[in-house]
Specification:
Keywords: Actin-binding, Cytoplasm, Developmental protein, Differentiation, Lipid-binding, Spermatogenesis. By secondary structure, the protein is α+β, with helices and mostly antiparallel strands. It has helices at 2-12, 42-53, 56-62, 110-126, and strands at residues 20-25, 30-34, 64-66, 69-76, 80-85, 88-94, 98-105. It has a seven-stranded antiparallel sheet, with helices on both faces. Strand 4 (69-76) and strand 5 (80-85) form a beta hairpin.
Amino acid sequence: MIQLQALLNESLIRTKHVENAAAIGINEREICASTSGFYVPSENAINLIYAFYKNLLQVRKEGLYFKQKHYKCVRADEHSIYLKNADGGLIVVKTKAFILIATYRVGMYPSVCVEAVEKLADYLREKGS
């Protein structure tokens, strides 16, 4: 998944409005690629998969925990979940094969982060991923 790793760096990190990013393989239920130094515990990866398939309404109402921090839901639908807390935010977007995760911190523009992740997801969908 070296190509996916390069896509995360080129299309997300280069915007300077994405702090960290990763891709979870939906079928594998594990991280396929991530940016340097960004570790996503397997429990968090599985919880994000379930957020789309089983818990979307609950995420809308209660938010979710990611890496021991609580995030309030800003938007949640069958393709995207946008969350935020006092330190920044978490953008989660589903494609056919992957769940993309991107974080941003205070001082970064959430709208740029969202746009970058959604564009990468669209690209992967076009490629059948």
